[in-house]
Structures are given as structure tokens and as C-alpha cells.
Amino acid sequence: MLNNCVLFKGLEPAYIQQLLDCVQSATKIYGCGELIWTPFESNSKIGIILKGKVTVYANLYCGNEIIINQLCNNDIIGLSCPWSGNKVFPAFIKTNCECTILFLTQQSLLKLFELDCTIFNNFMVYISSRLRYLISKIELLAISNTKERLLCFICQQIKHKEDRIKLNKSKLINQLSISHASLYRALNQLENEQYIKKHSDGSISLKLDLNNR
């Protein structure tokens, strides 16, 4: 199972277990809807989701909840914790179903990096991918116009003009911090203005030139 985690990419399961036997780790099972971390508690570990799905979200001062990310099997949570001067995790992480999480401390991670440099390389690659994701998220939230924010999101998801995506509207409302009415209005505007095309299977494709975005 762990060989599917980005941290151990390229390593054999038996070898991964040998490495883990050399460091301290802890596995914990959470029920559906349980909070794993909050901004009100100290933490210096990362977690690897062995089973299940979690939502990372923040509460805004106005009272609204904004979804930062949704993570599942083999994803890593708490990347900022081990080397942050502030040991408090800056958001909430809540389970969407029963989850099994493997926790590793900073000392354990450093030992794993020392035992096999592949793990360190995988860790840095994963951090880079998360930074790119956060940049795209900030780009979305910085756009005040709902139609433009939605178009930006669709462009981020579609890599080729012939590609199609299916939008989970319930998740999208939280991801983009918009209402149901605003989402449907923006979708209709984008279709009427020839930016997107809706298909009979519920998917969406882009009609604009991707090279000019």
C-alpha cells in the first residue's frame, strides 16, 4: 500500500517496511467526521493517508468556510508542520469517512532521508507540486468576478482543447466560495459567450484557444 504513496515512490513494499522499522511512527484510525488537526493545537508531524479521504478547510472571519483541498489514499497531510517555526497547523483537517493515518515526526523523516535519498527527493517533488497547487488556488481566489474565476478554474483543469471534465457542483461551490445561483449563472454566461461547451453526458470542454490563455 505505501509504495503508492509519493513519499515512497519507486521503492518496493518490503524495503519500505524495513525503513519504517528503523524509525518511530504511529498509526491511528479516525471515524467519519472527526477532526485530525485544528489551528488550536500544536503539531510537528506529517500524516500519510493509508485509507480514506479528508477535507482541508479554513474558517473565514466572516463566518464562511472555504475548502482548501480534499486528499485521499497515499496523500500527505501537514507538510508545513515539521519545519515550521509555528507548530500550529494553519487549517482544519476533517475526515470524510473512516480514515487510517500513519504519522511521522520530523526526526523520523530526517532518518528516512538519511537511509534513502530517494525519499528526500520524493518529498521535495511533492512539496513543489503542493506549492503549484496553492499558487493556482490563490490565483482563483484573487479573481472577484465569478464568471472569470470559474473560467480560470476550468482552464486549470483542462490541459488540452479536446479534453472534457465533469464538475462536481457541490464541491465547486465551496472551492470557489460562490453560491449555487452564481455558479449556474456563470456557467450559462460562459456557454453563451462561447468559452465552454456543455455535453450531453454532463461534461464540459473549452472552446477557446488554450495557447492564448
UniProtKB/TrEMBL annotation:
GO MF assignments: kinase activity
InterPro entries: cNMP-bd_dom (IPR000595), cNMP-bd_dom_sf (IPR018490), RmlC-like_jellyroll (IPR014710)
Record bears the keyword Nucleotidyltransferase: no
A Pfam family per the record: cNMP_binding
Database matches in CDD domains: CAP_ED
UniProt keyword annotations, A-Z: Kinase, Transferase
Domain Cyclic nucleotide-binding positions: 7-113
Name recorded for this polypeptide: cAMP-binding domain of CRP or a regulatory subunit of cAMP-dependent protein kinases
